Amino acid sequence: MKFTAAQIAGILEGEVVGNPNAEVYKLSKIEEGTEGSLTFLANPKYINFIYSTKATVTIVSNTFEPEQEITTTLIKVEDAYKSFSKLLEYYNQVKLMKSGIEQPSVISEGVTYGTDLYLGSFCYVGKNVTIGNNVKIYPNSFIGDNVTIGDNCIFFAGVRIYSETEIGSNCTIHSGTIVGSDGFGFAPQEDGTYKKVPQIGNVIIEDDVEIGSCSTIDRATLGSTIIKKGVKLDNHIQVAHNVEIGENTVIAAQTGIAGSTKIGKNCMIGGQVGIVGHITIGNGVKIQAQSGIGKSLADGEVVQGSPAFNYGDFAKSFVHFRNLPKIVSELEEIKKQQQ
Q: How far apart are CA 54 and CA 313, in angstroms?
């Protein structure tokens, strides 16, 4: 898809300096600009590149005045970085602006859906599903029975939503993620085998949640696994049965949260963190990457390590960890001198 400099300036409320009919169809870094590309200059460190870039159009701030000859057409705006971000958002909306039901796909009885639905090829929508307005479900996705989906949601290719799941508005779920699979519940038997405990709860995902690729959120044994408003989950995250994650908490990749743990709001959890079950993590907690959390944490704690402890104490202790061979050697020398 192509845009002229004039069209882009209209979107950004900017001023064209150069050829208003210059066309672009791709984005680039300013130092890697090629003909037909759009770039931007926000960091003064890159100012020299504007005189050599091959990009057709460059977004700059109003304060920029070239000191040498340039070949790129300029679009002057109040803030180049913010305007470029706005343009990316606009471009993404245009790219995802699909509608209609592709074939083959299956829509079961009792399904209701709003305006501007996009249902890609090879999708299956189960019985009594309710889908809001402007929902995009990409190919090879599965929506189980009795699922509810709010407005303006995007499910990318290969998403699986099991039955009874409730999803709010403005949610994005990326490819390969599974929501509502059985929790890990098995009861040990006298003969040493394990009997599966039926998982009859569901998953509730509130508004404005984004879930990365290949993550899994298990349904509750009873009640609900709950992902609250504004939560952002990275790729490859495991959320076990009956977990609750508070508003606006962000969790990085490869973190695992065991069953029935409650996490507060506005927490920041790094990658590869392991959290045991049946504990409570307070509001505003920060957990550094690769930490192991084995006990409840109070509001505002910052921890690191496995088992995790106060981050400041960890940082001080790490100095000694690194010097441990030297310290042992010195102790051995002292022992020899005392003999």
A: 52
